[in-house]
Design brief:
The chain is mainly α. Helices cover 81% and strands 0% of the residues. It starts with a helix and ends with a helix.
């Protein structure tokens, strides 16, 4: 059963990116959308948003740097290790679960560090990479996108986002264990 799932995923993975790259423009053409013009207009709007969110981006990156440099990350990982160890979560992937809700680039750097430390075929790297793809940069999204439209009261967005991140974190560990053993 697991071997069949692996085979299907392996075969489908070859077609995902080409299907997206061809599928979306083709769908737009079929619907009569001027694809190139709409793409250029979206790129212009994206640039304007990027300029608007720079202060929020600097603030979140500064906060993450302070969190890691202060030793708070190490303290948090050490504190959570006994509890997460009981449910089968390796301590080595805990930093990914902590950093991913904060920043995409920081979590990408963690994956790169893990690849250098454990090797690209390591089950720990596979867990971290799966977390990277299945969780969101919740605080970054809140800071940037809510800040871009001047929303100050995030209401239920943060708890819902963090709950989704937790589910993605735990599911990543268990799915990788299921598919790759360990």
């Amino acid at each position: 059963m697991v071997e069949t799932i692996r085979s299907v995923i392996s075969i489908l993975s070859y077609f995902v990116l080409p299907t997206l790259l061809v599928g979306f423009p083709l769908y737009g053409l079929i619907k009569g959308v001027p694809v190139y013009e709409v793409f250029v207009e979206g790129a212009k709007e994206g640039f304007d948003v990027a300029v608007t969110i720079i202060p929020y981006l600097i603030a979140i990156l500064f906060a993450i740097g302070m969190f890691r440099a202060s030793g708070a990350m190490d303290f948090l990982v050490d504190s959570l290790d006994p509890v997460l160890g009981l449910i089968g979560v390796p301590a080595e992937v805990v930093p990914m679960g902590i950093v991913r809700p904060l920043t995409g680039s920081g979590s990408a750097a963690l994956v790169a560090d893990m690849i250098a430390q454990y090797g690209e075929d390591s089950i720990l790297v596979k867990m971290a990479a799966t977390m990277f793809g299945s969780t969101e940069t919740t605080f970054y999204v809140i800071a940037v996108y809510f800040g871009a439209v001047n929303i100050r009261n995030t209401r239920h967005a943060v708890p819902a986002g963090l709950f989704a991140d937790l589910v993605g974190f735990l599911a990543s560990v268990y799915v990788v264990r299921l598919l790759f053993g360990g």
